[in-house]
Every structure is written in C-alpha cells, then in structure tokens.
Design goal:
alpha+beta, Immunoglobulin-like, 4-stranded antiparallel β-sheet, 3-stranded mixed β-sheet, 2 helices, 7 strands, about 30% strand
C-alpha cells in the first residue's frame, strides 16, 4: 500500500514529466541582421516578467538565426508577462583585431533597443527580431 508521501512524490514527478504546473511559456524565434542573414552567435536576453517579479531569460542564436529562451534549464521557457529585450553581439573572435558589432549598438541595451514583447501562456510565442545598422 502506498504511503501519502509516495503518492505526493509520484504525482509531482508525473506533473514535471507532463510539463504541467511549470508556469512557463515557450518562446522561440529568429534574429536577422540588416542584410537578412542570421545573427549567428548572438544572444537574445529578456528582462521583466509577471506582476513586477524580475525575471531574466536568455537564448543563444544558432547558425540559422533561431533561438529558444531559457530561465533555469535550456529551453524551459519564461513566465508569461511583459519583457524588454536586447540582443548581444557574437563574441569577439580575434582579440587583436578591431571589434565591430554587426548591427546598431542600440540593440545591446534594454533602455535603447526598443524591443518589448508580451509572452502569453498557452500560445505559440514565435518572435522575429530584425536588427538594423
């Protein structure tokens, strides 16, 4: 016969496997450079969240320009809410050469990027971010 604590543990494990109760919404998309090419190697960062609780989420931009946001574990999503966003440029490859951001530096700050998104629960949060020169 199961004890109450075993039932609770099994119930929690099943809800984690099913993804229920996490309160996180999946957010993915693409980041494109001014010339329409993928912003490979960049990073998308969200800051904000629900009810004034500060949440930060990040997603690395792949070779095809795609990203998926994470708060704690890769691809786990973010709580629904309103977020400001920025795009960090790819890391410097040659420390001895000049470093050039492949897009306007305004996109590297929450205050100047002009990027704001509302993440909704139960919907596909698929974003397209077009950075400019």
């Amino acid at each position: 016969m199961f004890r109450f604590s075993q039932v609770v543990v099994i119930g929690c494990a099943l809800s984690l496997v099913a993804g229920c109760g996490s309160g996180l919404a999946q957010v993915q998309g693409k980041v494109l450079l001014p010339d329409g090419k993928p912003a490979a190697g960049s990073q998308v960062v969200f800051e904000g969240g629900p009810d004034g609780h500060k949440v930060t989420a990040r997603g690395d931009v792949g070779n095809d320009g795609s990203f998926q946001l994470s708060t704690v574990r890769p691809g786990d999503g973010v709580p629904p809410g309103t977020y400001r966003a920025l795009v960090n440029p790819p890391p410097m490859v040659n420390a001895e050469g000049p470093f050039r951001v492949p897009f306007n530096a305004k996109f590297t700050s929450f205050q100047t990027s002009g990027l704001e998104y509302e993440v909704k629960s139960g919907l596909k949060n698929d974003l397209s971010i077009q950075v400019t020169k």
